[in-house]
Amino acid sequence: MPNSLNRRDLLLSATIAAGSAALPATSPQARTITGEVPWTPGDANRPDIAAGGDYQFLTADEVAFLDAAVARLIPADDLGPGAKEAGVTFFLDRQLGGPFGSAQSWYMQGPWDDGEETQGYQSRMTPAQMYRAAIKAIDAYCRQAFGDRAFSALSTDEQDKVLTGLEKGDIKLENVKAAAFFDMFLQNVVEGFFSDPIYGGNRDMAGWKLIGFPGARYDYRPYVSKHNQKLALEPVSLRGRAGWEPSKS
Amino acid sequence: MAKKLPSVDVVLVGFGWTGAIMGNELTDAGLKVVAIERGSWRDTSTDFAVTFAQDELRYYFRHALFEEPARETLTFRNNGEQTALPMRKLGSFLPGTGVGGAGIHWNGMTFRFLQSDFLARSHNIERYGAGVMPDTMTVQDWGVTYEELEPYYDKFEYLCGISGKAGNLNGRKIDGGNPFEGPRSRDYPNPPLEQVYGPTLFAQATKELGYHPFPGPAANMSRAYTNPLGMTLGPCTYCGFCEKYGCGNYSKSSPQTTVIPVLMRKDNFELRTESEVLKVNLDSSGKRATGVTYVDAQGQEFEQPAEMVILCAYILHNVHTMLVSGIGAPYDPRTGQGVIGKNYAYQITSSVNVFYDDKIMNPFIGAGTMGMLIDDFNGDNFDHAGKGFIGGGYIACWNTGGRPIETHPVPDGTPKWGAKWKRAVAQSYLRTTSVATHGAVMSHRGNYLDLDPTYRDVYGRPLMRMTFDFTDNELKMSQYLTDRATDIARAMQPREIRVNARKGHYSIVPYQTTHNTGGTIMGTDPKTSAINRYLQSWDVSNLFLMGAGAFPQNPGYNPTGTVGALTYWAADAIRNQYLKNPGPLVQA
Q1: Which residue, B107, B112, B317, B446, is the most exposed by fewest CB within 10 angstroms?
Q2: Between the CA of residue A208 and those of A46, A85, A221, what are the distances in Å?
């Protein structure tokens, strides 16, 4: 099983089966606790790590688009790997196929209105739906504007021009607000580049090595008073730490 | 049909800081107490152990510890002319959910408000004249003074083991502490945290400018500590994952690390999790609460009768509960009448990034309240004559932890992506610090909370509607603070700075602070406040409301210290006055 269920997931599925489908539960069952501090040895509310190597959500066309686009947002250069090399496309695949992609925790009831910018995200699309629609629309735009070539077939200069047009909202896409998609996409790419490698991006901790972030350490006491010194601490990931790592099967 | 349960002495709605403290105090008084919490049981070793607690994606960007808008949210608009729309995902503020509430994921900044903060209306009028506040500014005195709260601030600080440096011990000013603070009866329980380089440079620069830098009062332990309840906390390891994260190391005060294990072991206490209170029930007179109705995760409704009801949820939920229960007159901004939802306030923040070529900051070494700050421009610590605003805020150089998805500052003029962005991020990360301002928001007639006419939560209740914008007072004040922060940043002798001022309308999108206040404010008059000076409902005397909803306006500090003090203050009044003679503690 690529993502073995943890305790919360199991309880959650029981809750959904038993209760209201309207309840977007994060939750185990209601519980009454008295006279004790409950604790189960060995039980951990562990992260859901990105296992396996195959794409589960993205289509081949979407992978081609994302590989090309993330390589422009954070390119490989003399400083080190870029987003593509760091596995950000794979990270996006797992994120879009999971609770984030389905907007599981967001309020998605109508009525719908664009509102003011200060009122925030008002699209009725989930992130997964928005990526799917936007990539399709961007490739359609590119084919029309660049002689029947998809985004991934454009030169890097042409790709940058398209990305800039999306960022500024100069390119209009069918069914999707280009700037809204670009904002979410750029944020997710940064997440994939700098998040712990357990989520599939930041491969070999490339993002952390680039800037000098030592990762998931938890004790810097020996270094607090070392003012103005480059410490060159090797980064560490959560990967491989404990029993919550799913077994290979 | 709700299933009716046996009656208890006290039902607590919500089980974070205020619920845990109130539960412990009232069980000590011998009462049978039940707490009802919408989220799940959480403990350090299971839910935020050091083996996986330092996970920026999961905890901040995927909101693992925060409330879910899908289940409960609010609608928002800047003013009454707009149509409010749902906050579909979290942004500007991050309310907690689950046992421990937001006390799990806070930074631990534990301030006392200034003496003059509690007298915001009378003090400002006395010093500057009646014209200092426009008619639309609905600032009020609290009905309680700093001097009255001092023993309760002390109690909360010793519960938490706050690390800090006193600036005023019984009226004697102490070098290196905050000279503007009210007198303390004794020093902090623990010495200040160590500082990294950035705050040290800030302290030097502010001292040279004639200001009074002092270390942040931290609920992060500078050494091992055993609190008065016998709970032990370990020294902070400066891992840099406090705000938005649980502490895996028992080094940050939270309900879990300071109170809950003691409370849970008592026979006269019971906790029900995964249970959402839908409303407070009243008897036919409308003057007495009979208990609460709640629904559990399986959808079963229960009625829990109780002699006393105490709302201990986050302010937004306490106000919502009052509105949907029909307790107290809802506030009407057109007439200024009514009290529930009145004087909603927030905070106004800005920052200045400070970029060096030749200095290494190591921003990843941090703690929630590691940092140095000045209070020279907070409250009424400076002369406001002719400035066109009241209030102020602190200016700080915090080093809470350089978590890279959130923190990768780049100089002005850098593109948002591409090779130039990447180079700027790589060059700046270790060599940048920042100066932040944290400003008060005064209450205004048009800033309020009520029920939304259109949108509903999963239980079918109307969502609460927030109508809020920064007014001239806040924008002028924030610009003044930002200008001072800019001067300080320049005095830190960087290569360059980047000023991130707060301008224009309030937006619910970017994270600012989880310091929402008001809506069930305390005061001296039932016509202008929802609760009396003991946090007791004016309308229903066996109902008390904890939390920052009591703040008549929001001073320029983080609220938790005052929330804790007010909880102990109210618990004392319940134990020593109310229980002897149940009824209104203040005659209207």
Answers
A1: B446
A2: 22, 14, 20
d(CA B42, CA B246): 10
- Give the predicted TM-score (pTM) of the model: 0.95
CB contact under 8 A, B237 and A220: yes
Q: What is the pLDDT of residue A245?
A: 54
A163: part of which helix (H) or strand (E)? helix A156-167
Tokens of B539: 């309308």
| Band of pLDDT at residue B1, cut at 50, 70 and 90 | confident
Q: Which residues pair with B270 in a beta bridge?
A: B34
Q: Which residue of chain A has the CA closest to B409?
A: A211
- Non-local (6+) Cβ contacts of B399 within 8 A are B195, B196, B198, B199, B361, B363, B365, B366, B367, B370, B371, B433
For residue B34, give the DSSP letter: E
Check residue A242 and give its pLDDT.
Answer: 54
Could you say which of B68, B77, B509 has the minimum Cβ distance to residue A26?
B68
At B425 the three-state DSSP class reads helix
Residue A227 belongs to some domain of the structure: no
- Lowest mean pLDDT across A47-51, B157-161, B247-251, B359-363: A47-51
List the structure tokens of A114. 């664009």
The DSSP code for B444 is B
Looking at the structure, tell me whether residues A9 and A100 fall in a common domain. Answer: no
Per the structure block, which two tokens stand in for B486? Answer: 């800019």
Whether the CB-CB separation of B467 and B579 falls below 8 Å is answered with no
C-beta separation of B318 from B310 below 8 A? no
Report which DSSP code applies to B173.
Answer: E
Question: What whole-number distance in Å separates Cα of residue B40 and Cα of residue B48?
Answer: 14
Tally of domains within chain A: 2
Cβ–Cβ gap B52/A44 under 8 Å:
yes
Query: Greatest CA separation found in chain A?
Result: 73
pLDDT band of residue B439 (cuts 50, 70, 90) is very high
* Residue A50 lies inside a defined structural domain of this protein: no
* A165 belongs to a structural domain: yes
How many structural domains comprise chain B? 1
Residues A98 and A133 in one domain: yes
pLDDT digits (tens, 9 = 90+) for A130-186: 999 999 999 999 999 999 999 999 999 999 999 999 999 999 998 899 999 999 999
Instruction: Indicate if A74 and A130 belong to the same structural domain.
Output: yes
**Beta-carbon separation of A229 and B362 below 8 A:** yes
A4 falls within a domain: yes
The residue of chain A nearest to residue B295, with distances taken between CA atoms, is: A30
Nearest to B521 by CA among B289, B391, B338: B338
- Judged by a CB distance cut-off of 8 A, whether residue A213 touches chain B is yes
Residues A178 and A94 in one domain: yes
Q: What is the pLDDT of residues B203-252, one digit of tens each?
A: 999 999 999 999 999 999 999 999 999 999 999 999 999 999 999 999 99
Residue ranges making up the domain that contains B242: 3-578
The reply to whether A82 and A185 lie within a common domain is yes
Domain hosting A150: range is: 56-105+124-206
CATH code of the domain covering residue B364: 3.50.50.60
Q: Tell which residue, B573, B454, B466, has the closest CA to residue B519.
A: B466
